[in-house]
Amino acid sequence: MNDNKRFIVNRRFFLQAAVLSALSARSLANSCYAPYTSPDAALPMGPFDGDATASDVVAGLDLSGKTAVVTGCNSGLGLETMRALTSRGATVIGTARNQEKADKACAAFGDRAIPVVLELSDWNSARACGETITAMNKPIDMLICNAGIMALPELKLANGVELQFAVNHLGHFILVNSLIDSVKKAEQGRIVMVSSCAHENAPEVGIDFDNLDGSQSYEAWAAYGRSKLANGLFAAELARRLEGTAVTANSLHPGVIQTNLGRHLDTPARDPNDPVYNKDIPQGAATQCYIAAHPIPATISGQYFADCNPATANPLMYDEALAARLWQVSEELTA
Questions:
Q1: Is residue 91 a contact partner of residue 67, using CB atoms and an 8 Å limit?
Q2: What is the DSSP string of 87-128?
Q3: What percentage of the chain carries pLDDT values higher than 90?
Q4: Is 218 a catalytic residue?
Q5: What SS3 class is residue 316?
Q6: Range of the structural domain that residue 195 is part of
């Protein structure tokens, strides 16, 4: 992307950045640049933009016979994604942190939704979830890693790792690898990692491997940015490792949306009328539903999307050496 275009901030995003600046000097909105530009003119662009909803992007599709896995199905973008996919005939295996939440979310969709427990901070739970889904003996057409946590005000650890990195990246790393054979059994499997424009907030080195336990420093937005960069690097490395198969892997920025993800923010930032939020929940779920189900991006792999189209990410997202090292370290941490 042209350097001048990269740092153009339209009026809406300027306002968003101003509102969030009180939360952090390197806040989420400071990294949400617009307009988004494709990294490759050869990539097919779709007919949708940032105003499209999840229902818009799946309209007219026949997803009967397809199976999706959606993590974090009990609220926000996960619940809306499950609603959109089941409305077109797909079966969705919805995960939540406990059985009660999973059952309640899936109950609204009858036999088209199957509840499964997944606590992403618990490696045993992530493996057990993978085993449970594998035992269903269903080809996984869509694996949508949607669940996450954001901007924890204080350092918390899981398995000796900073909690946002553990939940947003490592838990999904275990789940995806445990389900990869089921995804390969699909006619055209798609792996979708929900990243964020906040990957721009990652430390200058991208992934500070010597500080994954927060022992050297901890800043809420930098830690969140690191985890979201990891989501994108994981998808890119998956795409490289899956070359020659029918499986694709991509990451995305959903938008700035008022959901339970922001439960750790200061109270004023949770006001749904705050102008920082540029999308509602149906719009926020659109890009992940588009990548997972629409025919246009079916063969695109290793890309970062925003507003239902390929978008240019921070250069760190394209660092193959960094992605390879992240994979190696992730294996070591979850072993």
A1: yes
A2: HTT-EEEEEESSHHHHHHHHHTTGGGEEEEE--TT-HHHHHH
A3: 81
A4: yes
A5: helix
A6: 3-334
Q: Report the C-alpha gap between 60 and 54 in whole angstroms.
A: 12
User: Where on the phi/psi map is residue 138: left (φ > 0), alpha (ψ -120 to 50), or beta?
Assistant: beta
Q: What tens digit of pLDDT does each residue of 88-146 get?
A: 999 999 999 999 999 999 999 999 999 999 999 999 999 999 999 999 999 999 999 99
Six-digit token pair at 36?
A: 């988004």
> What is the band of 2 on the pLDDT scale with cuts at 50, 70, 90?
very low
For strands 142-145 and 67-71, give the pairing.
parallel
**CATH number of the domain residue 177 falls in:** 3.40.50.720
Both tokens assigned to 235: 């998808």
AA identity, residue 80: E
Q: Given the DSSP bridges, would you call strands 157-158 and 248-253 parallel, antiparallel or unpaired? A: unpaired
Q: Which of 39, 32, 41 is nearest to 7 (CA)?
A: 32
User: Quick check: 173 pLDDT over 50?
Assistant: yes
Catalytic residue among 33, 36, 218, 304: 218
Residue pair 48/56 in contact by the 8 Å Cβ criterion = yes
Residues 293-326: tens digit of each pLDDT: 999 999 999 999 999 999 999 999 999 999 999 9
What amino acid occupies position 99? Q
Q: How far apart are CA 300 and CA 298, in angstroms?
A: 6
Q: Find where tokens 């930098």 sit.
A: 222
Number of domains in the chain: 1
